[in-house]
Design goal:
Elements (H helix, E strand, L loop, with lengths): L10 E10 L2 E11 L4 E5 L6 H8 L7 E6 L9 H4 L3 E4 L11 H12 L4 H15 L3 H4 L8 H13 L5 E5 L7 H16 L3 E6 L2 H7 L2 E6 L2 E7 H7 L5 H10 L6
Parallel strand pairs: 3-7, 3-8, 5-6, 6-7
Antiparallel strand pairs: 1-2, 1-4, 8-9
Helix pairs in contact: 3-4, 4-6, 6-7, 9-10
């Protein structure tokens, strides 16, 4: 399913190690994301997925390992040059409740546009389109939104500037089946337009639906990286849940 095997990786992380308050959280995570693919970082709660995302974005400092984000070290002096080419949706993100949906989009659009109000309005209109929220909802305060509506608004806010790489932490966590389906559709369309998408999830059946490639992570360590089909064949599994259990039980190292 890998559509862009000849494209240079948008993200390339090798042997990333991170310790927090003396406790090893990442003990050798490696993965890459290519243009036009949805790459799922999959594993149980506490596996190190969120820490991995924070490290590759330069929001947390790694202890060792190599990371190249759009060709630069996210902890280096050139990181600011590529910051506007990345979109990020944290798992615990919330819209500003006192602002309307439109005002939430426009506020961030002003940041993306460097204060250019005309460009900001165009970006916010694109965000409104991506969200799929009706005008009536966008005119309401975000505090009145359901969790699904809020997540769609936040996803649109994260990608309305058309980033080359979108990093999405548990984008469908806690959503009902209809909202989750809509969010997955947005993610697939984003990749279809050429962006790379890295998303984390502990829902391996959902990962199977959306992933071009998947990296299994457990205990802060990469177990394997492969397409969904390769994972099923490699572990003689009927689905990704079974493949992950086999990978953990088999003690497979990075692959």
């Amino acid at each position: 399913m890998d559509k862009n095997s000849d494209g240079a990786p948008l993200l390339d992380a090798r042997g990333v190690v991170k310790t927090i308050r003396g406790r090893p959280v990442l003990s050798g995570v490696s993965l890459e994301v290519r243009p036009g693919e949805v790459h799922v970082l999959a594993g149980p709660n506490g596996a190190g997925k969120t820490t991995t995302m924070r490290v590759i974005l330069g929001l947390a400092r790694r202890d060792s390992g190599v990371v190249r984000l759009l060709g630069v070290d996210p902890e280096g002096p050139e990181a600011r040059r590529v910051a506007g080419l990345v979109g990020y949706l944290p798992e615990d993100a919330r819209p500003y409740g006192r602002l309307t949906g439109w005002e939430n989009l426009y506020f961030y659009a002003l940041v993306y546009a460097g204060g250019d109000r005309d460009r900001a309005r165009r970006l916010a209109m694109e965000g409104a389109r991506i969200s799929g929220l009706p005008e009536e909802a966008l005119a309401r305060r975000a505090s009145t939104y359901s969790k699904g509506m809020a997540r769609r608004l936040l996803l649109a806010r994260a990608v309305m500037h058309r980033p080359r790489l979108a990093v999405l932490d548990e984008p469908t966590s806690g959503l009902d089946v209809f909202s989750a389906l809509r969010v997955r559709g947005l993610i697939r369309r984003l990749a279809g337009e050429g962006a790379g998408v890295l998303l984390s999830t502990h829902n391996l059946l959902e990962a199977q639906e959306v992933a071009d490639r998947v990296t299994f992570i457990s205990g802060g360590r990469t177990l394997c990286t492969c397409t969904v089909g390769e994972a099923l064949d490699r572990f003689n599994a009927g689905n990704l849940e079974e493949a992950f259990v086999a990978a953990v039980g088999g003690g497979h190292g990075p692959g």
